[in-house]
Amino acid sequence: MRAEVLQVRAFSRAVTRRFGVLDEQYLGRRRPLAEARLLFEVGMHATAVRDLRARLGLDSGFLSRLLRSLERQGLLVTESARDDGRIRVARLTRAGRRELHHLNALSDALARSVLAPLSPEQARRLVAAMAEVERLLCASSIAIAPAQPGDQDAANCRRQYFQELGSRFPEGFRPTAAHTLTLRRLEPRAGRALVARLAGDAVGFGAVRRIAPGMGEIKHMWVAPRVRGLGVGRRLLAELERAARGMRVRVLRLDTHASLTEALGLYRSAGYRKIPRYNDNPYAQHWFEKVLVASVRPGRG
Amino acid sequence: MRAEVLQVRAFSRAVTRRFGVLDEQYLGRRRPLAEARLLFEVGMHATAVRDLRARLGLDSGFLSRLLRSLERQGLLVTESARDDGRIRVARLTRAGRRELHHLNALSDALARSVLAPLSPEQARRLVAAMAEVERLLCASSIAIAPAQPGDQDAANCRRQYFQELGSRFPEGFRPTAAHTLTLRRLEPRAGRALVARLAGDAVGFGAVRRIAPGMGEIKHMWVAPRVRGLGVGRRLLAELERAARGMRVRVLRLDTHASLTEALGLYRSAGYRKIPRYNDNPYAQHWFEKVLVASVRPGRG
DNA sequence: CGCATTCTCTGACTATAGTCAGAGAATCGT
DNA sequence: ACGATTCTCTGACTATAGTCAGAGAATGCG
Q1: Which residues of chain A neighbour B15 with C-beta distances below 8 Å?
Q2: Residue A273: how many other CB atoms lie within 10 Å
């Protein structure tokens, strides 16, 4: 563990030094770095100011000033959104798009300057290692937390989940009230809903509810396609089990459709055993159960 | 190439975001980041202010102010160097060392927070990929440039080279004037000396000199132990060949000792062929030659 | 309708990270 | 010995990156 921690630190130092310095040299030469980043973030299509604020994590006053500055330079314009007059939308002008292209070219040059001194074989290996680091840092940035009641993102995850069921079940899918959980129905002590977030975006969802004394049920496990294969499902499931234990649940059940092969694999490898049908869900072909035991390993996230 | 460049850019964005934000959250909470970095850089033993300036790349006025600030906080003291009264040396006080330990602990926590959400297998792979990226970024940061006449670092490289020969040759080594190049002897048009630098430190050296019309000789190729295996020797050699071509040299020769196995391997794989003894160097057992042809690939360094 | 909330903006302020010119002390080179 | 150079420091200045409070317009909700 110690050696791993030291490697992470050495990596962080090496990379932020190299790229931080280059960023300033390449991108920040002509204008403040914050303005350059904002140009990147607005990008080619109109973007709401509130989204910019969320994505860049900036103070609203500061962002507003940056927008005014770019506006004065003729690089972008802002206008009110059609459907909501409070929201302002920023859009690059022709000159702004040209400037963005220029920044992109600089950014490419920066990347090339990193690859250039290397042999083709070294460059290939560097790129592969970078992809791996990026993928795993993404996995590590995903935080799992309880869904707040009335959480729009959580509701949105459920919607995407249902849509996906509809497209994957050969027979189609139409959610029935009986098998659909609302967050409200879980409150206050009937269950728990968790949301996985990546940089503010909800990228995973899962819920557990009590269905009998000492017995719980996992519902609506879903992971956004773009973060599949990063272990988010496994982490969500582990956290739901932790929550279930906290609710004095000893046995967890769940049902699933035969076409959801990744889910079937996850449940099996997480220790769930097939049991006979225990409910009347018309879309389920498999039913699982796991007896929870006191966990040795503490929760991780 | 395009895909590789995009991967490098995506990586840079992901990593600087993740670690930049964390750095500020963890290390910069109690004091300006520049001060924290300075504490790290001074470290456990006394360090000359000029070295701090070089390593951190700071303006002398700014650094001086940072030092005064840390001095006021009782974290370090500065005093004049014994052998040179102009040079000031900074050293952490007891309180400064405590603070450094604290910063180290925070830095460790930061690293752990990256690893914590991952499965053991994912963590293992992340650390391995980080090590690879760090290694190759280090390789890519090494710049090869002509040695300025009177360059202390270049002279120092030659000294280390001789020391290493002394420790590796079974018969020992004592440089003879006849086979030792000084930079001055290469000036102005008799040859060229190149230095490889990593963040200001000289980590490699090599020279080429004209020994007959159309004929050159590679001398004093040396790569610092800490950057071996990164392809620096190969790059140095390629650049020396480029320089030789620029000097209208068509045939390059070199001699080497039987115990320098890496060098022998490098010369062979770079297209050098064994030839009979062409000089009276008492320490040489192998002589090589390469006929230079117009290079298809442009220089890369 | 009217009150609470959301969203953006402005003004006033602060902290951080420098840059630049020049002074003063020490040392180097000849 | 002495002029050039090196090294550090101070004072004065600027740019960047914010923070915070509050105003004003638009919308949501009962």
Answers
A1: 12, 15-16, 19, 133-134, 137
A2: 11
